[in-house]
Amino acid sequence: MQLNLKLSELKKGQTAEILSFENDELKLRFYEMGCLPGEKVQIELVAPLGDPIAINISGYLLSIRKSDAKCIKIRPE
């Protein structure tokens, strides 16, 4: 299994740990929403056309665009 993937590459039901962010502007927005390095995320829902996706993080569902998910580096579990 690859060690450095993007959140956008996970499939429904998969879990991963957030490692870092590639975009500084989005990084601050993600931090405000509770997406911090070290947090566990799970893909819960995927829209019929694949965008947006809903992730479970810290006990709540967060809907994000697939393009934003490409900026989140993760380590799959």
Major beta sheet, specifics?
6 strands, antiparallel
Mean pLDDT: 90
Number of helices: 2
Strand proportion, as a percent range, falls in 35-45%
In CATH, the topology is named SH3 type barrels
Distance between the termini: 9 Å
Give the name of the CATH architecture: Roll
Low-pLDDT parts are none
Keywords:
six-stranded antiparallel beta sheet, 2 helices, 77 residues, single chain, alpha+beta, SH3 type barrels, globular, 17% helix
Question: Can you walk me through this structure?
Answer:
The chain is of the alpha+beta class. It has one domain (5-76): Ferrous iron transport protein A (FeoA) (SH3 type barrels, Roll). The chain contains 2 helices and 6 strands; from the N terminus they run ββαβββαβ. A 6-stranded antiparallel beta sheet has the order 1-6-2-3-4-5. A hairpin with a 2-residue loop joins strand 4 (53-57) and strand 5. The protein starts with a strand and ends with a strand. 21% of the residues are buried.
